[in-house]
Specification:
- This protein has 459 residues and is mainly alpha-helical.
- It has 3 domains: 7-127, MgtE N-terminal fold; 142-242, CBS-domain (Roll); 296-457, Orthogonal Bundle (Tetracycline Repressor, domain 2).
- Helix content is 64%, strand content 6%.
- A 3-stranded mixed beta sheet has the order 1-2-3. It has a 3-stranded mixed beta sheet with strand order 4-5-6.
- Strand 5 and strand 6 form a beta hairpin.
Length: 459
Amino acid sequence: MKNVILLPEFKEIIKTQNWQLFKEICEDNHPAEIAELISALEPKEVWELIEKLEISQRAEIFSHLDLSLQIEITEIIDRRKLAELLTELPSDDRVDLFKKFPLEKQEYILPALAQAEREDIRRLASYPEKSAGSVMTSEYVSLPDNITVQEAINRLRLEAPKKETIYYSYVINSARQLIGFVSLADLIMANPNSIIKDIMHEEVIFATVDEDQESAAKKIQKYDLIAIPVVNGNHTLVGIITHDDALDIITQEQTEDFEKLMAIGGAHEAGVYLKTPVITHFKNRAVWIISLAALGLLSGIIIHNFESTLMSMMILALYMPMVADTGGNTGSQSATVVVRAIALGEINFKDSLIVLWKEFRISVLIALALGVLSWGKVIFLSQGSEIPQGFTLENIGFAIAIALSLQVITATLIGAFLPLLASRLKLDPAVIASPALTTIVDITGLLIYFTTAKMILGL
């Protein structure tokens, strides 16, 4: 449990109703720290504390709470207080919370909001999930292109308290189309009588409302932006995505990719492990695991078919795990680098031949090194083992080394090709890259191992 040391202190504040002490704590700490400190309390206790603060401070602390805790709090407060809280929240946080409400609650709370907030929620909530439009905020600064620098600075003074960032101001024409931007430094350094159109930067990095949120976040990362403007199909400025939201998006996407690599289904959210019920964890994990276990039965069938080979050369059984593990490791390596390259937009299915040729050359070098190592391992570890008449330990080691080398090459190529094929079929490469790959490589590895040994040793 988080913050167990401070938990009794907050409970004592609630018990004694020493709200002044809590206000002093809030004044001495960042809202994010306060949110973390009180998040160990029950939702009712959290609300009892922050309700005593000014609405702006209350909303700021509330916005830093986990979304699941926010939802629990909204279930215990009345409509007026909820409407007041929603009004004060940043527009992107407000719509994220609103979209988690059941339809009945959405219809219940909307009439209690001012028209501007209602329209803002409806507009932002209309964009597809995980699109740039769904994560943008409408709290940005836009400037007409025909006003002076002094007029622009006067506007910033008035609008600054209500905006997420004022470092960038986006320049629009009479049709509200994005035509440029100016930074706060530009405005401070410029002649007060200069026209905005004359000092603005015309080359603007932007995202579109239907663009994937990860793509927009990567633009912020790539170009070191504080925020990126978002436009619709008519190039009309409709919002911005700030750098803090970009960090959240990248963290969310990395969490999703990591869990998919491990064949975990369901929602992929950061920081919800302890709050997720056991049955939900079971559902998220069981489908792939059971499916792959069923597919893994093929390994047993292969071993059964080569039972006579094993019986005549039991030493082969000792090195089966080595071949299987090596294939899984090399396949996972190639799959990981290919998935990463696909995610970064470096390669796609059209580059398959180039990727496979590159991975083939890499795998041959790895296979040579591991082949020699495995031959030496067989010679060293199996000295004194019972060898069937007509065979030598050197020949058996050679057969195992060749089988392992072939396994490395095929596993690497399979690991590289499967994510590319998945992307071509509009599937998620991350899902294919690890658990499915491991099972496939195990099956092919056993076939290669026994077939190679049988051919070389004449079994």
